[in-house]
Amino acid sequence: MPFCHCINPVPLSPCLSQWAPEVSHHCPNAAIILVGTDEHLRPLSGNIDLTALAVTYSEGMAAARGMGAYKYMECSAVTGDGVTEVFATAVVAILHPKSTPRQSKSTCVLS
Fold first, then answer.
1. Looking at the predicted structure, is the pLDDT value of residue 22 above 80?
2. Among candidate residues 5, 63, 3, the one with its CA nearest the CA of residue 27
3. Of 73, 63, 68, which is closest to residue 24 (Cα–Cα)?
4. What pLDDT does residue 16 have?
5. 68 closest CA partner among 26, 36, 11, 106
6. Confidence at residue 97, expressed as pLDDT on a 0 to 100 scale
7. Which has the higher per-residue pLDDT, 71 or 47?
């Protein structure tokens, strides 16, 4: 299940505080792919205020690890960069799921 956020200048907090817990509750086995959109805006951001607010790749990776995501990716629909890879990764995540930290937390012990 792709979660998308604009890398410039929207923060990741809605992904972490609202979407991830809701999906974990309703779809505990769904593979989450955190996707940073509008990647093309990062190099154009000459405005220091926007650059300071932009989500960096490392911040996106850390957020993905924190929410137990399958993968973190960035793309741009304007340039087409990374779009095909996001969809390919979503298909692979469905066909070949891997255990993520989020999924492995929900274990059941029968005695």
1. yes
2. 3
3. 68
4. 76
5. 106
6. 74
7. 71
Residue 99 dihedral angles phi and psi, to the nearest 5°: -70, 125
Amino acid making up residue 27: C
Position 88 scores a pLDDT of 94
CATH superfamily for 2-104 is P-loop containing nucleotide triphosphate hydrolases (3.40.50.300)
**Would you report the helix, strand and coil content of the chain in percent, each value rounded to 5?**
45, 15, 40
The β-bridge partners of 35 are 4, 73
**CA 105 to CA 90: how far, in whole Å?**
22
What residue spans define the domains of the chain? Answer: 2-104
* Mean pLDDT of all residues belonging to the chain: 77
As a whole-number percent, the residues of the chain with pLDDT over 90 amount to 16
Rounded alpha-carbon distances, angstroms, from residue 38 to 3, 28, 74, 79: 14, 28, 8, 9
**Under 8 Å between Cβ of 68 and 106:** no
* Cα–Cα distance list, 43 to 7, 8, 24, 50 (Å): 11, 10, 34, 11
